[in-house]
Amino acid sequence: GVVLVLSGFQNPLRAQLRAAAVALGAQYRPDWTQDSTHLVCAFARTPKAARARQLGGVVLAPGWIWECQRLQKRVPCGP
């Protein structure tokens, strides 16, 4: 159920984050859409992050993807 958008990352890190998330079963979108659920961003205080929160999305740091990958499961989105 994760539909992921990335913000503030450049390649190769952007590609690595996307590949890790997709390998775990997430769907990727290049921009926020109605079905997006998670925004993984380099900077949490941006207009894009604020907009994602307003639309009910979860805003996360990239460490969330790495932790999901390490444990091979979706981990909680909280601290």
UniProtKB/TrEMBL annotation:
Which intervals hold domain BRCT? Answer: 1-79
Gene3D superfamilies recorded: BRCT domain
Pfam families in the cross-refs: PTCB-BRCT
Q: Name one GO cellular component term.
A: nucleus
One of the GO BP terms on file: base-excision repair
Question: Which InterPro entries does the entry link to?
Answer: BRCT_dom (IPR001357), BRCT_dom_sf (IPR036420)
Q: Which named protein is this? A: XRCC1 protein
Originating organism: Rhabdornis inornatus
